[in-house]
Amino acid sequence: MAKQLAKSFNCPTEFTLSVLGGKWKTVILCYLKQQPCRYSDLRRLLPALSEKMLTERLRDLTLKGLVIHTRDSKTRSSTYSLTAKGRSLGDLLHHIYDWGRLHAKDFDVQVGEPLTRLNEERTAS
Amino acid sequence: MAKQLAKSFNCPTEFTLSVLGGKWKTVILCYLKQQPCRYSDLRRLLPALSEKMLTERLRDLTLKGLVIHTRDSKTRSSTYSLTAKGRSLGDLLHHIYDWGRLHAKDFDVQVGEPLTRLNEERTAS
Predict the structure, then answer these.
(1) Chain A residue numbers touching B98 (CB-CB < 8 A)
(2) Closest CA–CA distance from residue A84 to any residue of chain B (Å)
(3) Of A27, A115, A23, A110, which is closest to residue B9 (Cα–Cα)?
């Protein structure tokens, strides 16, 4: 079950980080900020996460009210997207993603862009 | 010793979070984004951190090249501030802090503002 959010925090930063909820949940939120994703998309975007780990994190984000899970009655495919509460994090999520994209070269590191690659593959097929 | 930054990341978000380096380092960076702080200020701003934990995190941030430590030769007081690399995180740190400040009420939580309080006490004395 999702950890309950504390009722008070020493400073705004601690509260924000508690809502984001750690590395993998923040990565998921950053993807969902860019576009709604199917469960199978998220599996491809987060290859380091096992199915169990991804499912748990999605459940936590849903229980926290940041993510909503809808199922298409025809195709039966599951889609995850941000709720209004989740979208309130939009600008911040954009900055987290974009800082990494723009500053990787300053730290001499390579960063992939799996969502861009996934969309390119989809357009090409 | 500070963990070496990996040379490649699956996505920009993972890289950004790795540079920020976890909850307490992000909290420290958010304070230093607002103003240079003495070691004693940081001790007051982060009451949940022991002296050892704070010292370790400051050393990591310094080794990563995000924070610089200067010592006034007259007063012998230590001041920590962001380097140019640290300042490249400025907008992002501002968003992390500000989102928490602005959205606490939507989540029905209280957040303190210890840096504002510290500065008010200093002005009053």
Answers:
(1) 12
(2) 11
(3) A110
